[in-house]
């Protein structure tokens, strides 16, 4: 892994390091937000849910805005503004006491990520393609490094936040803000004003929004890819919806949930590069995505069959599900990120990258309501029904591999 980091060059190292720092700064604060809102601030349960939902919408739902701005102005200014807003949002959140202040700060925190995340994801995909063309290293390997860095940040952030909470929620927020100040300083110093290979705004920068969106809605392979990825993301969201219910059903408590999520991060880091390298040598993007979705379906199905067992204190179905979901994540996420540049015009890579996240986030938002009802009604056997979600996604995988830099129709 260290050799790969040395080979990719300073710009990609900056982008990969930024992803690590983003997740450390994020997970120092956000896992403890609900407890702070309901405990220290005494907000009602429905209001806590509303605040968390608004944060998700202001981030995931507005990725398309950050992507479009990246196409127009380049990655550097969008990342810089996003980091400034995230610092301001965390500081505000740390001192917020009233409901309006909490909502405002959380919206600012979410919108900041809607700026810098698609900007960084767009640029890392573009530079991964350039690196592949220059030295022959598969772009999926570079994108795998990006994903591993994010998982490492996810693993480090929560325990660091737990330690910081000994000094209060405000201390965690201020440290989170400090992390983003470091990222901001790094990008101001090291990020070029125009990254190598990035297209100029040109005529596309002066197009109206309707003109810029027209090729998006006509790009059928990309839209099918969005549907396939949405099925994966809706399935992945069961880590936070179905898995906690299953852990409590099996053990009477959710204590094991944190250990299962830590296991998922460690497994991801351990197998990401070798597993994706094995798949990349044997499968196309289409084949890798399809097998990843089938693996998710198998995870749901096998877990449902194992639920009567008492092995591992009743946690065997949860371990099987987390393992299958993590291995599928290893295959799917870098593959989709590597595939998008081949399906779209490079001048609109940011817009399409942001749209992928926004549309899939909308599917998760809408799909979580009936899935929650299904889990309440059907209990453990709902997991067998949930296997249909990734199976449907596998049917949506586009047939076209695309043409690098030119998109598809």
CATH topology of the largest domain: Growth Hormone, Chain: A
The SS-based structural class is mainly alpha
Pick out the low-confidence regions. Answer: none
- Tally of helical segments: 18
Series of H and E elements: HHHHHHHHHHHHHHHHHH
What's the CATH architecture name of the largest domain? Answer: Up-down Bundle
Q: How would you describe the oligomerization state of the chains in this entry?
A: single chain
Strand content: under 5%
Instruction: Give the helix level as a range of percent.
Output: over 70%
C-alpha Rg (nearest Å): 21 Å
Tell me about the largest β-sheet: none
Number of strands: 0
Instruction: Quote the distance from N terminus to C terminus.
Output: 37 Å
Average pLDDT over all residues:
85
Give the number of domains: 2
The CATH superfamily of the largest domain appears as MFS general substrate transporter like domains
**Morphology:** globular
CATH classification class of the largest domain = Mainly Alpha
Describe this structure in words.
- 79% of the residues lie in helices and 0% in strands.
- The radius of gyration is 21 Å and the shape is globular.
- The longest helix has 37 residues.
- The mean pLDDT is 85.
- It has two domains: 196 residues, Growth Hormone, Chain: A; 193 residues, Growth Hormone, Chain: A.
């Amino acid at each position: 892994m260290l050799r790969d980091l040395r080979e990719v060059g300073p710009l990609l190292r900056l982008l990969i390091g930024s992803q690590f720092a983003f997740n450390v700064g994020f997970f120092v604060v956000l896992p403890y937000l609900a407890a702070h809102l309901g405990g220290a601030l005494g907000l009602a349960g429905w209001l806590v849910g509303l605040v968390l939902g608004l944060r998700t919408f202001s981030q995931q739902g507005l990725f398309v805005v950050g992507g479009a701005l990246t196409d127009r102005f380049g990655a550097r200014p969008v990342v810089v503004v996003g980091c400034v807003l995230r610092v301001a949002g965390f500081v505000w959140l740390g001192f917020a006491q009233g409901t309006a202040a909490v909502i405002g700060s959380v919206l600012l925190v979410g919108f900041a990520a809607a700026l810098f995340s698609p900007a960084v994801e767009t640029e890392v995909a573009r530079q991964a393609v350039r690196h592949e063309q220059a030295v022959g290293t598969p772009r999926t390997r570079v994108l795998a490094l990006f994903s591993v860095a994010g998982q490492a940040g996810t693993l480090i952030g929560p325990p660091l936040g737990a330690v910081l909470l000994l000094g209060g929620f405000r201390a965690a927020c201020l440290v989170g803000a400090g992390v983003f100040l470091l990222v901001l300083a790094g990008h101001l110093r090291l990020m070029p004003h125009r990254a190598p290979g990035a297209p100029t705004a040109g005529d596309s920068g002066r197009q109206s929004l309707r003109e810029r969106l027209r090729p998006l809605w006509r790009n059928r392979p990309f839209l099918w890819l969005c549907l396939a990825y949405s099925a994966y993301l809706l399935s992945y969201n069961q880590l936070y919806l179905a898995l906690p219910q299953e852990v409590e059903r099996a053990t009477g408590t959710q204590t094991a949930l944190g250990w299962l999520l830590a296991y998922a991060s460690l497994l991801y880091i351990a197998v990401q590069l070798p597993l994706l390298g094995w798949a990349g040598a044997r499968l196309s993007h289409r084949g890798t995505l399809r097998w990843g979705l089938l693996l998710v379906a198998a995870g749901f199905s096998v877990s449902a069959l194992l639920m009567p067992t008492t092995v591992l204190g009743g946690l065997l179905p949860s371990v099987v599900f987390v393992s299958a979901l993590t291995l599928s994540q290893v295959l799917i996420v870098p593959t989709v990120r590597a595939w998008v540049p081949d399906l779209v015009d490079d001048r609109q890579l940011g817009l399409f990258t942001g749209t992928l996240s926004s549309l899939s986030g909308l599917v998760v938002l809408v799909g979580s309501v009936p899935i929650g009802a299904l889990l309440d009604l059907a209990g453990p056997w709902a997991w067998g029904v949930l296997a249909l979600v990734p199976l449907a996604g596998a049917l949506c995988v586009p047939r076209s591999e695309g043409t690098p830099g030119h998109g598809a129709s």
